[in-house]
Structures are given as C-alpha cells and as structure tokens.
Write a structure and sequence with these properties.
The protein is α+β, with helices and mostly antiparallel strands. The protein has 9 helices and 24 strands. A 9-stranded mixed β-sheet has the order 5-4-1-3-2-11-6-10-7, sandwiched between helices. Strands 12-14-15-17-16 form a 5-stranded mixed beta barrel. Helix 1 runs antiparallel to helix 2, helix 3 packs across helix 5 and helix 4 crosses helix 5.
C-alpha cells in the first residue's frame, strides 16, 4: 500500500529545521517497519504567505507499507509527533509561534490543495474541514497554520520536468559553528556537474548552496536529476575545504517550475516610472482592459534598471506574482516595441538645424538652408543597454526558489 506523508512548520527562526525533522521521522518509520521510501519531496509554496521562511517549503514522502500496518504507521507517527511538540515547546518565544502539522493520506489528495497553496493565500480552517472529508489523517495542536503546507506536500503531483535537491545535514557537534563549504569547490560544481544549477551567483561571487541561518542543513545541491545531485555531493564531500556531513537525502522538488505564476502577460506602458526610497521602482501599464501596477525592487537588478527606462507607449511582456496589495512583483521583463527614445532635428553642414522662430521653420546656421520643422527618431535597440525582445531576470541570489531561470528555457514565452 502506498502512503503519502506531509510535514510543515516545525522550525523556529533560531532553531530547528523541517527537513531535518522529516528525515528523523522517515528514519524511525523505516527502522520500525522495514518499508521502502519510494520518494522524498520538497515542495515550495506561495512566496507571500505570512508565516514563512524565505523559501517557504514543506516536506513530503511516498512510502510503501503492507496493508496490515496502517495502524502501526499511525502509532509511529503519533509518538514521533508528540515528541516533536515537546521539543518545539522549548523553543525561545517568537512573534510567530511554531505550528507543526503532519499529514498522512492513503488515498489521492485533492490537487487544488497544492495549486492553491502555491499561488495564493489559503485559510487553514478550510483545509481542516476538507481534510476531514477526505480521510486524511492530521496531527497538529493549537496552532493550525502548518496544515496548509503539509496538505500541499501530499497533493503535489510531480512530472518528468521536476527538479531535484540533495540536502546534507551537519553533525550535531558542528551546530553553531561557521559552515565550511569551500567557495572554490562550489564554483567548480557547474562545470563538473552541468546538470546542477543555482550553485552560485556569478554577479556577486558567492555560493548559493549553503544557508546562512543556524539550522542543521549543511548545504543543498539542486539539479535536473537525482543522479547528478548525488554525484555532485559525493565529489563535494571529497574536497578538503568542505565539512563532512552527518547524512543526506535526495528530494524531488517543484523548484524552478514557475507553478506560482498563472500566465505571462503583455501590455502598454501608460506613465513614466515612479521611483521610491531604496531604489525600488514601479510603472502603470494597460493590459486586458485594466490598469496594473508593476513593481521592480532594487534587488531585481536588470529588471529594475529596464523598468526605469520605460516610456509611455512602450509595449512590454512580463512574468510576475500578484502581491496582497494588488501590485505585480516582477520576476522577468522584456520590452517588445518602443515609443521613440531620442529625437533630433535634421542635420545640415554637420550641424543640427536650428529654429528660426515661431512658425518660421528650421535654418542651417552655416549655409542658410531652410526646412520645415521636423524630428527624427533614433532606433531604441541602437542606444539601449537592453534591446527589445530580450528577457531579463534578477541575479541568481535574488530569484525566488520557484522561478524558472532563463538558462532552463521558458516554453511559451519566447
């Protein structure tokens, strides 16, 4: 019998880690039942969720157990969850309390649990009611927010294009100390293992695989296949400048899927860009019969700089996520066609012709030739840093986990 497990919201800002907690649970299940773990999963969710870490991810797994052991599995999970509650109760006080939830499903869970959780706010009360009607088993206590991620993790349906992430955990004796993950070794991963991606940000010269929080994760290697991330991990562990890990596990993931984006949209710019404190910028566009506000934060780099150059009349296409305030936070942007950028008067005798006065046309100051007042436009692509038709995206360290990099190709948007 196949069973799905989902876990979310077990970590505190200063302690704990849901990936590590889930690994402990699966190890207990495997040891007690001698069952097969068919697949582990790391599912990223709506980036604007109030209760979230930067990545906002939940953990899931598909396991194969004998039909007669359903009750035994529930007991193992309940005992483990009770111990987890005792552990998180000892975490330091926080404005956002930990809200652990463990979900178990022996049947197919509603797919909309995933799609709603990756694209918009989900009321946990609604999930609780629906889960009760589907036979989903939930372990949780007073705080119920974790039910959204846990149920999303058991309802996500992967596909052949899903990515993979290998997560390596630190030895307990190393917790609290600085991670040793050689930047030189990380910089070699992409060339030695081309199936891996987002290992480092070349624009800032820093690695992206090791977290900077006090969690038990040593690093996470992302790639297009489970074999590629495992080979990269084995090689990395052989490097002298890299800390030895306690254990590791490979997860299928929805990262770089763009599942949080409903569609690519196009429209016309209807005003000059507005700049705000901190280097952020926004612009109004007309698309699909309505006015929209597009926002590019300073951290967006090329996207922010392109938005600042827009002029009324420009035709643009974008990929972005609607925020709770209704604005669209841009993740990719391109300019399709432009209104004239630089206008100049005709040239005569190697000099620009000048106005002769009101209603008197233009006159060459050298030879005296006269001409009607006219203006010439210069091709935008000849003078602009970002030519039309070229997609732009933020630098790697400023992209969302769900955002699909241009290097991975963008079907239907080129």
């Amino acid at each position: 019998m196949r069973c799905r497990l989902g876990l979310d919201d077990t970590d505190h800002v200063d302690e704990g880690c849901t990936t590590s907690s889930f690994d402990e649970l699966l190890s207990e299940i495997q040891e007690a039942m001698n069952c097969d773990i068919l697949e582990r999963r790391l599912v990223r969710l709506w980036p604007f969720a109030e209760r979230r870490t930067r990545g906002n991810g939940a953990l899931g797994a598909i396991i194969d157990i004998p039909d007669k052991d359903k009750v035994f599995l529930e007991k193992i999970c309940k005992d483990w969850f009770d111990r987890l509650l005792t552990k998180v109760a000892g975490y330091p006080p926080s404005k956002i309390p930990v809200s652990p939830c463990l979900a178990i499903s022996f049947d197919k869970a509603p797919e909309h649990w995933y799609w709603d959780a990756v694209r918009c706010y989900v009321d946990p009360e609604n999930i609780l009611r629906e889960a009760g009607n589907t036979g989903t088993i939930l372990f949780l206590e007073n705080e119920i927010s974790g039910v959204v991620g846990a149920c999303a993790a058991i309802s996500w349906e992967s596909n052949p294009d899903s990515s993979w992430e290998l997560i390596a955990w630190r030895n307990e004796s190393s917790l609290g100390s600085e991670r040793r993950v050689s930047t030189i070794s990380v910089s070699k991963l992409g060339s030695l293992f081309p199936g891996t991606f987002l290992n480092r940000d070349p624009t800032k010269g820093k690695g992206l695989i090791a977290p900077r929080t006090p969690c038990p994760v040593l690093y996470g290697i992302r790639g297009s296949s489970s074999s590629e991330v495992e080979m990269a991990h084995i090689w990395l562990q052989s490097e002298k400048g890299v800390e030895s890990c306690k254990s590791y596990a490979i997860h299928r993931s929805n990262q770089i899927s763009d599942d949080h984006i409903e569609s690519t949209r196009s429209g016309s710019v209807i005003c000059k860009p507005r700049e705000t404190k901190g280097g952020h910028a926004s612009v109004s566009v007309f698309s699909g019969g309505q006015s929209l506000n597009l926002v590019a934060f300073q951290e967006g780099g090329p996207v922010n700089r392109l938005l600042r150059t827009l002029e009324p009349g420009d035709k643009i296409t974008w990929v972005g996520l609607r925020s709770p305030d209704g604005s669209i936070h841009l993740e990719r942007l391109r300019i399709d066609s432009c209104s004239p950028r630089i206008l100049s008067r005709p040239i005569c005798c190697s000099r620009t012709m000048r106005s002769s006065g009101r209603n008197q046309g233009l006159r060459c100051l050298s030879c005296g030739r006269k001409e009607k007042k006219t203006w010439y436009s210069i091709n935008f692509d000849d003078i602009h840093e970002y030519p039309s038709g070229k997609w732009l995206e933020p630098t790697p360290s400023n992209r969302r986990h769900l955002s699909r990099p241009l290097s991975q190709g963008l079907p239907g948007t080129n």
